[in-house]
Design goal:
This protein is an alpha/beta fold. The chain contains seven helices and seven strands; from the N terminus they run E-H-E-H-E-H-E-H-E-H-E-H-H-E. Strands 3-2-1-4-5-6-7 form a seven-stranded parallel β-sheet, with helices on both faces. It is globular. It starts with 9 loop residues before the first strand and ends in a 9-residue tail after the last strand.
């Protein structure tokens, strides 16, 4: 993306050590933004999927972009507060927040526990309120901003036939994310803040390749970079513009804006 439409803007992308979040962080930096890369993973020796926040920062700075890494676990309130404070200390402002981090809690009903439910709601839903409380006043002081909540097609009722058993906790959290977005948006519009929820569609990531069968046909799946144009548009919105919507990334420039 050669046009620097986000030049000078400061954007936080959570869950950006890998997957969609990493792709968005790199793409937003290419569009001119100063990006705060945030996730839990800081050490490549940690167990789990590959990728760290330092890796993403290195990918951005190696091509001349501006980025810093700030570790945060979005299930912890103090981490959220610190992420916002550290961003302001480093860059003086926040223009956009991309809530991409999630807890991909899975478990069929008979095996699910209250702890699994609480983890999903704490990480995927409670964090939205905490982030909004911290970041909206910062955005409002500088004329407004944009909050983009990365949802899932699984939030839609019509997705049920495509979902395997075990996704109930996850999709309920994503449905709550969407309703939160559309409910809060009109309340904060006069403060200059836009809030939208975006479903990225089927995206091939480290997690999806782990979860899907080995013989999966990936031909119709997107790469993370293909989600970037829709997010660049949403990042430019303010309270008097495109807000309070649930949109599908693959439909950008086809069915919306």
């Amino acid at each position: 993306m050669s046009e620097k439409v986000l030049d000078g803007k400061v954007i936080i992308v959570t869950g950006s050590s890998r997957g969609i979040g990493k792709g968005l962080a790199i793409g937003l930096a290419e569009a001119g933004a100063k990006v705060v890369v945030s996730a839990r993973t800081v050490d490549s020796s940690s167990p789990g999927l590959p990728g760290t926040i330092k890796d993403t920062v290195d990918a951005i700075t190696s091509v001349g972009g501006t980025a810093i890494a700030i570790r945060a676990d979005i299930s912890i309130e103090d981490d959220i507060v610190n992420l916002i404070e550290q961003t302001v200390q480093n860059f003086g402002r926040i223009d956009c927040l991309v809530n991409n981090a999630m807890a991909p809690t899975r478990g069929i009903f008979d095996e699910a526990t209250a702890e699994m439910w609480d983890e999903s709601m704490r990480t995927n839903v409670r964090s939205l309120f905490l982030f909004s409380r911290e970041v909206i006043p910062v955005m409002a002081r500088n004329g407004g901003g944009s909050i983009i909540n990365v949802s899932s097609g699984g939030a839609a009722h019509e997705s049920n036939p495509q979902l395997p058993p075990g996704y109930t906790t996850y999709v309920v959290a994503k449905a709550a994310m969407e309703r939160y977005s559309t409910s809060l948006a009109p309340e904060v519009a006069q403060r200059g803040v836009a809030i939208n929820a975006m479903r990225p569609g089927a995206v091939k990531t480290e997690l999806s390749t782990l979860e899907m069968p080995a013989d999966t046909d990936w031909s119709d799946w997107q790469e993370p970079k293909e989600v970037v144009p829709a997010v660049v548009f949403l990042a430019q919105q303010r309270g008097d513009g495109f807000t309070g919507r649930v949109v599908n990334s693959p439909d950008y420039l086809k069915l919306w804006p």
